[in-house]
Amino acid sequence: MKNSDQWSSKIGFILAAAGSAIGLGAIWKFPYMAGTNGGGVFFLLFILFTILIGTPIMLAEFVIGRRGGADAVTSYRVLAPSSPWPFVGYFGTLVSLIILSFYSVVGGWILSYLIRSLTGGLTGMSQAEYGALFENIISRPWEVLFTQGIFMIMTVLVVKGGIKAGIERASKFMMPALFVLFLVLVVRSLTLEGAMDGVRFLLQPDWSYLTAETALLALGQAFFALSVGISVMVTYSSYLPKTENMPNSAFSVASLNIFISLLAGLVIFPSVFALGFQPDVGPGLVFVVIPAVFNEIAFGGLFLTIFLVLLLFATLTSAFSILEIIVAVMEKGNEQKRSRYAWFAGILVFVVGIPSALSFGVLTDFQIIGKSFFDFADFITSNIGLPVGALLISIFTGYVLKKSAVKEELQRGSGMSDGLFQVLYLLIRYIVPLAIIAVFLNSFGIL
């Protein structure tokens, strides 16, 4: 069934799509991934992969979604009837469910920290004490489950309202607020003595970190941060009018994502280096080091609260898009059932996320290939699910859809030149699949 709900404006779509991209991927995951993988060289690879691979994949998803005009599964069925290709939509929906299941856990952590920050419970501690607090919070089963549940309720309440009344309205408020909060924090971070060491760490590549593993991690980060490979953008673009300039929207979203990742780095690394902390502490960077950093500066409690509000807004806008994929597949364009399916999908995500929520407490000893359930869910989605999904989407767009159909969608409403189309089509058809396969083979020691 073709979607009847649509974005009310171009800026509404761009903000929502950017909100999907600018979430934990940019603000939580990018800093700790860059911090543990050399800083500048990881950032450079991330930019290259975002432009040369992530953006063409986003455009491919836009083509599939707008031309199919339906959810992630039905769009493939419309474009390739009586074929196995709808599996890509099911695969993306499954990966989305797994991502949101552990993503919501981190959203719960943010709520726990925000509540403590608002009540003055995050001041006056050493880094060791902040580390102990983080370990204590994530190991408390009832707290992590409660806050994860609250985060999912907040997400469902927006998604059940639909595209215009729910996601677009929330994104139009949250995204501008996010930019303002970020700029305030960047100015404060860069004015600290010794901040330039952190800037150099982020922007000056250390080529000793240029390895196949770093490339695979940067590729996974580009996919994770742009929300491509799981048909998020197939779903969002299915609500686009035929007059929308899709290439312009894709480049706007990619540019905003790189810019926000840069801002996140400029908030965190100058502060970390200026105050003598280490950037390579991993996933706990924003929960352990950042509170300790803000504790060392004037009005640190206020700036920490601003940071946590920013982080919550970004996390929610991404969660909206991921839950929307699942809901759209369930309702199949029947808007009367949206509220019911939104609650059902939210409860399903919560239940699937329980093992991730308990990974650092009662399930600490439960390991899969040496990883906690939380880390395993992150690994299989970021390093396997997203790249495999992106590979399948590029193959579908480059080899299953007719070239004339892809060209028609990309040029509709954009006036894209034939030359630029040929470049993008070359990237989608050849460069993107080869790059993904090459990085995979190299990382497994085959190439």
From TrEMBL:
The keyword Transmembrane applies. Signal peptide: none annotated. It is found in: Membrane. GO terms for molecular function: symporter activity. It is a multi-pass membrane protein. Its main location: membrane. InterPro entries: Na/ntran_symport, SNS_sf, YocR/YhdH-like. SUPFAM superfamilies: SNF-like. Keywords: Membrane, Symport, Transmembrane, Transmembrane helix, Transport. The chain crosses the membrane at residues 12-30, 42-64, 85-115, 144-163, 175-196, 216-239, 251-277, 297-329, 341-364, 384-402, 423-446. GO terms for cellular component: membrane. It comes from the Bacteria. PANTHER family: TRANSPORTER. Belongs to the sodium:neurotransmitter symporter (SNF) (TC 2.A.22) family. This is Transporter. It comes from Bacillus salacetis.
